[in-house]
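*** Residues and shapes ***
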Amino acid sequence: MRKAVAIVLAAAASLPIMARAQNITDAEIAAAIRAGQAKKFGDLLSTCFATPSFGDLFKEAEPAGGVKADGNYDVTVSTNAGRIAFLAADAKRLYKPFTATEVPDSLRKPAVFVVAEPKPPTQIGAYMSIASPVEKIVLKSKVNPDAVVQPSGFEAQPLEWSNLVGGTVKGTRGLATFNLNAVREMPPGDFDVVVITQAGERRCKVGAKDRARVFSAKPSS
């Protein structure tokens, strides 16, 4: 009995160590920052273009001289290294410093990060096409539509654009965080990024090859 208890206690004690070992290391963070600053981090990301379904496009009649919320989203999917590299590249573009000290704990814990960036408003004939505000992002298997991964965290960041008549158009950027193990446990194959907006769903596909590449990629040292 004592031996069995000792084995159980030893196994329990090892769990926190295993969890910590999964966190991105300082060396990997440094490599991701270098990759971002050198603009050599494409292998760490998967990108796709989230669009309305054919039915959603024709649900709303074209408003004369008005606004139609049928715009699209640029979607980026990555794990920790890809997200850090992306932020490092953006910081360099803006002439801002970005070092390991700027990497928060939320980017050190294993996760999948999805960013839905709205396309700027576009004037199309008599109306303006805008991207509807994002309310949520989920991941949905294309092999088994019942397999849906919910985000562990979500943030809608407000955005504004100036229009041609001196006013402003408002929208949101969606940032979702997913449990890495939950995403890996989805059925093998392609999955959709489903951007849920006030005007309906916008979807794009992450292919099986991209999925395998992004979830196994590490920044080059």
Remarks:
- DSSP finds six helices and twelve strands in the chain.
- Residues 44-80+109-216 form one domain.
